Amino acid sequence: MTELGRPTTAHALGLDGPGLTFDWAGVTDVGRRRAHNEDSYLAAAPLFVVADGMGGHSAGDVASDAVVRRMSEIASRPFATTDDVETALRVATEDIAVAAADTELGVGTTATGAFLSREADGAEVDFTVFNVGDSRVYMFEDGRLRQVTVDHSVVQEMVDAGLLHADDAEKHPDSNVITRAVGFDVDPRPDYWRVPARPGLRLLVCSDGLTKELSADRIAEVLGGVEGAEQAATALVEAAVEAGGRDNVTALVVDVRGVETPDAD
């Protein structure tokens, strides 16, 4: 388990035009049934990443650590690109291969998150969301929760094919079987989505230890009722542990705010 970054408030980009500030915090817990925590996260602009080491595989914590540490090498610039993320994931895959050299089953991790991005000739700032595996990114805005990422899992493929109702997916015996991961000597293939960074937006990046314990309605209730990124992340993790805590639980919350200006005399 690796935690990179610390709770931050009023992080400003220093851009021309309408300003934005960002608050963020990450929280993780081993849960009630695991011997150790295989989740890792990075919370340092421009990158907000959660990696969930593969449960049941040796050195899953080493795999998740490799992802967030390679991602942290991007964090010296105000914005990132998809090329940055894919390069970091490829190098992390090489790191994981070294760690898995003496294992028969291999080692892997999911990787999901969001990074601040900006077109070269544009003024708007976006979050580019990426995903490999079944950890997730949600957006909460105007009181509504929306899942941004799509799981790379067997049950998601069954839902997409009309063979399984979405409400039954978490109860299916194959709910833990994913179809993409970082590691296992396979080239990682993230999917991407673009989310405008505007005041009032709240992003949640989380491992499946949270989503397997809390319904979408419960997640929305916490995100809508708890102010402050650190307080919201803490409340989500505590709720997931209290609901069962069958897996490691990690939540990273990012809030977007406008720049506050003093009233004119």
Describe it for me?
- This protein has 265 residues and is α+β, with helices and mostly antiparallel strands.
- It has one domain: PPM-type phosphatase domain (Phosphatase 2c, domain 1).
- It is 25% helix and 30% strand.
- The protein has six helices and 14 strands.
- The chain has helices at 60-72, 82-99, 154-160, 208-211, 216-225, 229-242; strands at 3-5, 8-12, 20-29, 39-44, 47-52, 108-109, 111-117, 126-132, 136-141, 144-147, 182-183, 191-196, 202-206, 249-258.
- It has a six-stranded mixed sheet, covered by helices on one side.
- A hairpin with a 2-residue loop joins strand 4 and strand 5 (47-52).
- Helix 1 (60-72) runs antiparallel to helix 2 (82-99).
- The longest helix has 18 residues, at 82-99.
For the largest beta-sheet, the strand count, sense and barrel status come to: 6 strands, mixed
Shape field: globular
The CATH architecture is: 4-Layer Sandwich
Major sheet strand order: 1-4-5-7-8-12
Unreliable residue stretches: 261-265
Helix content range of the residues, please?
10-25%
How many beta strands in the DSSP annotation? 14
State Rg. Answer: 18 Å
Strand content: 25-35%
**How far apart are the first and last residues' alpha carbons, in Å?**
51 Å
Which H/E pattern describes the elements? EEEEEHHEEEEEHEEEHHHE
Average predicted local confidence, pLDDT: 88
Oligomer: single chain
Question: What structural class do helix, strand and pairing data support?
Answer: alpha+beta
Give descriptors for this structure.
six-stranded antiparallel β-sheet; disordered C terminus; alpha+beta; 265 residues; globular; Phosphatase 2c, domain 1; six-stranded mixed β-sheet
